[in-house]
Design a protein that fits this description.
By secondary structure, this protein is of the alpha/beta class. It has 5 helices and 5 strands. It has a 5-stranded mixed beta sheet with strand order 1-2-3-4-5, sandwiched between helices. A hairpin with a 2-residue loop joins strand 2 and strand 3. Helix 4 runs parallel beside helix 5. The longest helix has 24 residues.
């Protein structure tokens, strides 16, 4: 479900050949990301949702959807990004998530009517202007949620 560009980017972040990141930095990034996914899962569980923490269970094989939260007839497909760097989340990342959600819905034969796509982030400043516009244009189905 991930584009070649995203796979290359992820491999470069975690690759031993990347001198910019020490092993300790990589381990901390993974830990912070996992902790954020747990926090987001707990947030929705406290709101009465049943949680499937796919990102924690499946790692990079999660198909671009970290958490599936369900309550009654509503399904939330959630991508968690613990990124705080200013404007680090681009419109292409949001569009890729949107596509991953669409593929998942088709594969699992879920109703689109009661499904919402959520991009969980710790800080709005991480969104680029173009990413924010994608959310504004698709708010009914795809939105971001700040969980700090």
């Amino acid at each position: 479900f991930l584009t070649k560009k995203e796979l290359d980017r992820r491999n470069n972040i975690s690759s031993e050949s990347n001198p910019a990141l020490k092993t300790e930095d990589k381990e901390n990034m993974k830990k912070y990301g996992d902790d954020f996914e747990k926090k987001v899962g707990a947030y929705y569980k406290a709101k009465g949702y049943t949680i499937d923490a796919r990102g924690l269970r499946l790692g990079y094989e999660d198909g671009g959807i970290d958490i599936i939260a369900t309550k009654e007839s509503e399904t939330l497909l959630i991508q968690c990004k613990y990124w705080k760097k200013d404007k680090s989340i681009t419109h292409n990342m949001i569009k890729e998530f949107y596509g991953s959600c669409s593929i998942y819905i088709d594969k699992e034969n879920i109703s689109r009517d009661n499904t919402i796509y959520i991009y969980a982030i710790p800080d709005k400043q991480a969104l680029s202007g173009a990413a924010t516009m994608v959310f504004k244009n698709n708010y009914k189905k795809c939105r971001y949620k700040i969980i700090s």
